[in-house]
Design a protein that fits this description.
Blueprint: E1 8-13, E2 16-22, H1 23-31, H2 42-45, E3 47-48, E4 53-54, H3 59-69, E5 73-77, E6 83-88, H4 89-92
Length: about 100
């Protein structure tokens, strides 16, 4: 995560989204608890049941959903429930030319 400068990764099991892990999850559930990062599995510290949006959703709806559930990133799924990306509030913000 450090090398790629990302703070959020979707977590899948058997090709299905089961949660997400964030840099905050790692700090609170691994570092603060004194756990060994080399011996701790992602499934033990991830946030289960990640919310998501669909690739063909309207961006206004996505922003409203993110605000309602207080998140700044969402996994993006296709209509076959396959992960196709991640969207963030910063990627949706208007950028004036």
């Amino acid at each position: 995560m450090l090398e790629e400068d990302i703070g959020f990764l979707p977590v899948a099991r058997n090709d299905r989204l089961v949660g997400a892990i964030t840099d905050r999850d790692i700090v609170l559930r691994v570092v603060a608890e004194g756990r060994d990062p080399e011996q701790t599995e992602v499934g033990e510290v991830m946030t289960p049941g990640a919310k998501y949006c669909y690739a063909d959703d309207d961006t206004g709806r996505i922003v409203a959903s993110m605000a309602a559930i207080h998140v700044s990133r969402l996994p993006v799924m296709d209509r076959h429930q396959r992960l196709v990306g991640v969207v963030s509030l910063s990627s949706l913000q208007y950028r004036a030319p």
